[in-house]
Amino acid sequence: VQLVESGGGLVQPGGSLRLSCAASGFTFGNYYMRWYRQAPGKERELVAGILSGGGRRDYADSIKGRFSISRDNAKNTVYLQMNSLKPDDTAVYYCNTIVKTTHYWGQGTQVTVSS
To answer: What's CA 84's distance to the chain center, in Å?
Structure first.
């Protein structure tokens, strides 16, 4: 299983970014996918999740209404559209899935929200 995140960067408050996570090594379309984030000095936080077919999407209260998770099963990719970004959204963002009880993580992508 391999997960590779991309799309992070430096953005001003109020701006937008779209993160991507390219997956391989498992049957992507069969698995629930998640985005987590970890800010300096804080625990890793679950941000959003999406069911295998995309029909159910779950969000943390802290980002509800601003972030949107989606997936393209033909491309084995899950996305996180982030709008109205705030300095508190600054963190390393990780893609995650659980296959046969094992958690798999990408290397993470840094998102910095600052003026």
So the answer is: 16
Q: Which pair of tokens denotes residue 96? A: 């995650």
Say which residues have a Cβ less than 8 Å from residue 23's Cβ, sequence separation at least 6.
1, 2, 3, 4, 33, 76, 77, 78, 95, 97
Token pair, residue 36, equals: 């987590």
| Residue (of 67, 76, 80, 65) closest to 19 by Cα position | 80
3-state SS, the chain, equals: CEEEEECCEEECCCCCEEEEEEEECCCHHHCCEEEEEECCCCCCEEEEEECCCCCCEEECCCCCCCEEEEEECCCCEEEEEECCCCHHHCEEEEEEEEECCEEEECCCEEEEECC
The pLDDT tens digits for 2-15 are 999 999 999 999 99
Mind listing the pLDDT tens digit for each residue in 80-102?
999 999 999 999 999 999 999 99
